[in-house]
Amino acid sequence: MSSRHLARTIALQTLFEWDFKNKPKDKLPEFIDYNYQEFVTKTSDQSFTKKIVTGVIKNIKKIDGYITKYAPEWPLDQITNVDRNILRIGIYELVFDKDIPSKVAINEAIEIAKTFGGESSGKFVNGVLGSIFKDLGEMEKSEDKEKAVKDEKEKPKTSSK
């Protein structure tokens, strides 16, 4: 398992506990420390996990707004705690973290959903994040910009005589 995938998994476990215990923001560092002690066999850098958790919490209202908009058949409180927090991480990385490529954000969220969610969690997460990506179009992310430039260079040139 890659270190970033593991960090996302720890972020999910942390946000799950935070959500389950009525969202005590002051307990987040304690939850992260505990999850690293329990689930990581060697000393690991917690900075990526902390970045995700902090980013989700900082943008929680906007992120939950995306969930509400793109999963209208599912009221936020009726989405399982696991799926809700996977979506929060995926939306944070897709929309708010300019350093995470869009496809990586989506694929990681889907893989985590398949591992920790229910039978249809992967499809649900894919549908929501795919719709957000489609509506947002090209984003201000490094790989998205590079792809846009590459696509533009590869377009056939037509002469206008």
Automatic annotation (TrEMBL):
Ranges where the NusB/RsmB/TIM44 domain occurs: 7-132
Entry superkingdom: Bacteria
Name by which UniProt lists this protein: Transcription antitermination protein NusB
Source lineage: Bacteria, Candidatus Falkowiibacteriota
The family this protein is said to belong to: Belongs to the NusB family.
InterPro entries, per database record: NusB-like_sf, NusB_fam, NusB_RsmB_TIM44
One term of GO molecular function: RNA binding
Gene Ontology CC: one annotated term: cytosol
Keywords annotated in UniProt: RNA-binding, Transcription, Transcription antitermination, Transcription regulation
UniProt keyword annotation of Transcription present: yes
Free-text function comment from the UniProt entry: Involved in transcription antitermination. Required for transcription of ribosomal RNA (rRNA) genes. Binds specifically to the boxA antiterminator sequence of the ribosomal RNA (rrn) operons.
SUPFAM superfamilies noted in UniProt: NusB-like
Name of the coding gene: nusB
Residue numbers spanned by region Disordered: 139-161
Keyword check for Amino-acid biosynthesis: no
PANTHER family attached to this UniProt entry: ANTITERMINATION NUSB DOMAIN-CONTAINING PROTEIN, N UTILIZATION SUBSTANCE PROTEIN B-RELATED
One BP annotation, GO: transcription antitermination
